[in-house]
Automatic annotation (TrEMBL):
The gene is serA. It comes from the Bacteria. It comes from Candidatus Paenalcaligenes intestinipullorum. GO terms for molecular function: (S)-2-hydroxyglutarate dehydrogenase activity; NAD binding; phosphoglycerate dehydrogenase activity. Its EC number is 1.1.1.399, 1.1.1.95. Belongs to the D-isomer specific 2-hydroxyacid dehydrogenase family. It catalyses: (2R)-3-phosphoglycerate + NAD(+) = 3-phosphooxypyruvate + NADH + H(+); (R)-2-hydroxyglutarate + NAD(+) = 2-oxoglutarate + NADH + H(+). This is D-3-phosphoglycerate dehydrogenase.
Length: 403
């Protein structure tokens, strides 16, 4: 029976998936472990689940001698030595889509609150005022939403916004299929000039740094609002501060910041602190009970599929081979250096032992090639040893049927 070891209080939905698939040897830890305690806990583990606090470095990988795959029950994977894992034949899976809906709902909620001027009104009531006025308050129905970055989250925001009667424009550097009635804007400027609400859903990094700066903020409609639940680096905060103070923009909601506090008791440092037309949240766009449950299920399902079939679709560091139903007596998983002639040579070894290949898939990624091969007979230990000794082989396993 394969053993699954889960650290960092992973949502019970993960254990449910493993148990339903027959993997009942699931060991769970409430927190992250380090050093020798981690190495000890990894002994006998065939699949491991971590979140962001476990440092899965080369030493941890070396200590986990039975390991077949790693699951990051979160979005980020930089806590794992991805290259070392890949070269050790360990695909790393994560949950890139599990919190999409949570972010999209927050954005829509903030759009409504900002157009109704609720942050200011809320603050005024707390301060003892009763400004019962419709001045500056608008419905979002019929207003234009401009989405910058029409990927997983951006397109989901657009679909929800249309259900509320918004007109949806988007701008993306890639050609994207518009969902429902959304329309692509050829330039960022055209989008900014027309939108009552602008929301950012681009990745971080050099190409998106300060996409919203003094020039692009000036292109926004007077009275419009800006929402950023993407990455802190995409908005020039000083420029935004100026546009809010001047009254050009009516409000903003920010969930991410150029520099975020490291711990619970560290305050956020930002010129926007104290502005009552700005909603500030501590990077919780994707943090809901539902997203945690989805993450547990999504990553556990990817691990189960890999353990059962060798399918590596969705791995972040590994050639991605899709699920292939078993078509032979035995299945061999072969990870090798991506050099010409490897597949022909492997086929020759099978032929030499009188085995016919009845199903095969190969995918390559950077320096790696990964092949799943089904053969019509039993693979002997001698043949397996030959495949393992083949030049460039990084890992070769027989996929045992059952658990
Ligand atoms: P995605 O990769 O599905 O979509 C990003 C889109 O932005 C792609 O369509 C891409 O072509 C486009 N893009 C890239 N550069 C662009 C540019 N310069 N101008 C216009 N479009 C550009 O990503 P996903 O999953 O939708 O995530 C979007 C952002 O949300 C990411 O930055 C992610 O880190 C952040 N995020 C924030 C969370 C939170 O808690 N606040 C939770 C989850 C994600």
């Amino acid at each position: 029976m394969k053993r699954i070891v889960l650290f960092e209080n992973i949502h019970p939905s993960a254990t449910e998936v493993f148990e339903a698939a027959g993997y009942t040897d699931v060991v769970t830890y409430k927190s992250a472990l380090t050093g020798s305690a981690l190495h000890e806990a990894l002994k006998g583990a065939h699949a491991v689940g971590i979140r962001s606090r476990t440092q899965f470095d080369a030493d941890a990988i070396a200590a986990a001698t039975d390991l077949e795959a790693i699951g990051c029950f979160c979005i980020g994977t930089n806590q794992v030595d991805l290259l070392k894992a890949a070269n050790s034949g360990l695909p790393v899976f994560n949950a890139p889509f599990s919190n999409t809906r949570s972010v999209a709902e927050l954005v829509l909620g903030e759009a409504i609150l900002l157009l109704r001027r609720i942050p200011e009104k809320n603050a005024r009531v707390h301060q003892g005022h009763w400004d019962k006025t419709a001045e500056g308050a608008f419905e979002i129905r019929g207003k234009t939403l401009g989405i910058i970055g029409y990927g997983n989250i951006g397109s989901q925001v657009g679909t929800l916004a249309e259900a509320l009667g918004m007109r949806v424009l988007f701008h993306d550097v890639e050609a994207k299929l518009p969902l429902s009635n959304a329309r692509a804007c050829p330039s960022l400027k055209r989008l900014l000039e027309q939108s009552d609400v602008v929301t950012l859903h681009v990745p971080g990094g050099a190409t998106t740094e300060n996409i919203m700066n003094s020039t692009t903020l000036a292109q926004m409609k007077p009275g419009a609002v800006l929402i950023n639940a993407a990455r802190g680096s995409v908005v020039d905060i000083d420029a935004l501060h100026e546009h809010l103070q001047s009254g050009h923009l009516a409000g903003a909601a920010l969930d991410v910041f150029p520099e975020e506090p490291k711990g619970t008791n560290e305050p956020l440092k930002s010129p926007l602190i104290g502005m009552n037309n700005v909603i500030l949240t501590p990077h919780i766009g994707g943090s809901t009970q539902e997203s945690q449950e989805n993450i547990g299920r999504e990553v556990a399902e990817k691990l189960v599929l890999y353990l059962r079939s060798g399918a590596s679709k969705g791995a972040v560091n590994f050639p991605e081979v899709s699920y292939m139903p078993a078509s032979g007596a035995e299945r061999i998983l072969h990870l090798h250096k991506n050099v010409p002639g490897t597949m022909a040579a492997l086929s020759n070894v099978f032929a030499e032992y009188g085995l016919n290949i009845v199903g095969q898939q190969l995918q390559t990624r950077d320096q790696l090639g990964y092949a799943i091969t089904d053969v019509d007979g039993i693979v002997s230990e001698e043949l397996l040893a030959k495949l393992r000794a083949f030049p460039g082989t990084l890992r070769c396993e027989r996929l045992r049927s059952g658990l």
